[in-house]
Specification:
single chain; alpha/beta; 4-stranded mixed beta sheet; 19 helices
Length: 558
């Protein structure tokens, strides 16, 4: 079965007007800010803390993925369709796709087959302009910094060598990682080294995702740490009076986006940080919006549970007071073969021995979720190459651990193919759910928090620090940022910081190269191993297989 495009869906079934989708959430038309017929912004006054406490949050994460991903978004959407099929009022709340992976290695991120959100092509491209607003707010601050260096009247005496703020662009472009700016004479600014991150790694993205309301957004923007003056005093965005101008650019981006699933169920999509270099979850506002409007909210966190889920639970849930009642661990037989040692060219060939060996990776993720006092359900995302023997092994191996594993056929069958998964999730929520507890307290010492994640979640035996990281720790202490959360930047390909160590590696040490500060987002970012916050394109980018005809029909985007 091939992936359905928006055009094919429109031919088979007319998309519902977004006003109709809003009625399923009891939203009146006057509360919708329309972006055409099929997209709308939701006002923040719809958030209701009392309803949030009464409704049920389900987090979808995964085992350590292969480069193509294991289908968390597809399973999240499919599970939402399945929950609605069995009579539960459910909404899926997702992140917005970044153009980097869309045109790079993964293609679109709006689900697939009969479990996707619509209008898929709009969502995968510019959507409602949120990413553009985040990029512009980030780069406004960068321009204000360089303008101040040049100023003769309002100069803050910033030492250019200490400036930490980087520009961003929503594209994988390794050539921009390290650049020199301000060349061409005195009229063009002060020459200095600079660089770009990808937009999902921007602290403005992190701030948007961590903000509780517009006032909180402005306060966080004001607290962005820029660097130091020549006399060693810290400089923040508020010193440049940047926060209001940045907030103006984000006045619409702070509002969650309402779209629909293929089966006409509500979908809220908002924010888009990566989980390997940022916190990897949608906005607190979007999650709370979903919980204010529906009984069940299905949300996802990027890459494997050692990244997105860990950050969702330790950072987002701890700060926002969220109580996830079930975690769905997405597994594929393909990924289990990979972790058992199969090479890429044999991913789709049955191999029970490698699946049995690769199960150790999934087992570690199950153990980790339970450390948060949450019971997992395993969703076996079905592929045509799965053998019955391999699938039965996964179900039986999970059962021995006291975990229900269910085949998820959302891609091929939509909600009809996820009803059993939905029943398993409801069983956990209604009969097994306990009070979520974070793995560490934000007020613990920085090295203790890092060690807790490294040892408990990754399985490391220890942590080592470069000289630069040790100097960064002193800076964090001097600035009084010890009480911040920890947002690890680590490869998504392994529990360790070495992407070649697949499965469940043991006896390894993680290496902290440096530690960045996101004072507005209220977390620090230890950078492990060779991680880069500006990815590069693969040898054959996904963009090479995309086409658009004279009628505007796009193919190859998904």
């Amino acid at each position: 079965m091939k992936h359905l495009s928006d055009i094919e869906i429109a031919q088979a079934k007319k998309l519902k007007h977004i006003k109709y989708i809003a009625t399923k959430l009891n939203i009146v038309e006057d509360d919708l800010e329309m972006y055409g017929k099929y997209k709308a912004k939701l006002p923040l006054h719809l958030i209701d803390e009392q309803k949030i406490a009464q409704n049920n949050l389900v987090l979808v994460t995964a085992l350590t993925p292969t480069p193509a991903g294991e289908g968390k978004t597809t399973v999240s959407i499919g599970l939402t369709e399945g929950l609605n099929k069995i009579g539960k009022q459910a909404t899926v709340v997702l992140r917005e796709p970044s153009l980097g992976p869309v045109f790079g290695i993964k293609g679109g991120a709006a689900g697939g087959g009969y479990s996707q959100v619509l209008p898929m092509e709009d969502i995968n491209l510019h959507f409602t302009g949120d990413f553009n607003a985040i990029e512009k707010a980030n780069n406004l601050l960068a321009a204000l910094i360089d303008n101040n260096l040049q100023s003769k009247t309002n100069n803050l005496n910033i030492d250019p060598r200490t400036i930490l703020w980087k520009r961003v662009i929503d594209m994988n472009d390794r050539a921009l990682r390290q650049i020199t700016i301000g060349l061409g004479g005195t009229a063009n600014g002060i020459p200095r080294e600079d660089g770009f991150n990808i937009t999902p790694a921007s602290e403005v993205m992190a701030i948007l995702c961590m903000s509780l309301n517009f006032e909180d957004l402005k306060a966080r923007l004001a607290n962005i740490f820029i660097g130091f003056t020549f006399d060693k005093k810290p400089v923040f965005a508020r010193d440049l009076k940047a926060q209001d101008a940045m907030a103006i650019l984000l006045k619409d981006a702070i509002k969650p986006n309402l779209v629909q699933t293929l089966e006409e169920n509500p979908a809220i999509i908002h924010g888009g940080p990566f989980a390997n270099i940022a916190q990897g979850t949608n906005t607190i506002i979007a999650t709370k919006m979903g919980l204010s409007l529906s009984n069940y909210v299905v949300t996802e966190a990027g890459f494997g549970a050692d990244l997105g889920a860990e950050k969702f639970l330790n950072i987002k849930s701890q700060y926002a007071g969220l109580n996830p009642k079930c975690v769905v661990l997405v597994a594929t037989v393909r990924a289990l073969r990979h972790h058992g040692g199969v090479q890429k060219e044999a991913y789709n060939t049955p191999n029970i021995v490698c699946v049995q060996d690769g199960f150790k990776n999934l087992e570690k993720h199950i153990e980790n979720i339970r450390k948060f006092n949450i019971e997992p359900v395993v969703a076996i995302n079905s592929f045509i190459s799965d053998s019955e023997e391999e699938v039965n092994f996964v179900i039986e191996a999970c059962a021995k651990l006291g975990v229900e594993a269910v085949v998820s056929e959302g891609w091929a069958k939509g909600g009809q193919g996820t009803k059993e998964l939905a029943k398993a999730v409801v069983n956990v929520v209604e009969n097994k759910a306990t009070q979520f507890k974070p793995l560490y307290n934000w007020k613990s010492p920085v090295k203790e928090k890092i060690a807790t994640i490294a040892k408990e979640i990754y399985g490391a035996v220890g942590v080592t620090y470069d000289k630069k990281a040790e100097l960064n720790l002193r800076r964090i202490n001097r600035l009084g940022f010890n009480d911040f959360a920890v947002c690890m930047a680590k490869t998504q390909k392994s529990f360790s910081d070495d992407d070649k160590l697949i499965g469940r590696p043991e006896g390894f040490t993680v290496h902290i190269r440096e530690i960045e500060i996101a004072a507005g987002a209220q977390f620090i970012i230890p950078v492990l191993g060779k991680m880069m916050r500006m990815p590069g394109l693969p040898a054959t980018p996904a963009s090479e297989n995309m086409t658009i005809d004279n009628n505007g029909v796009i193919s190859g985007l998904s």
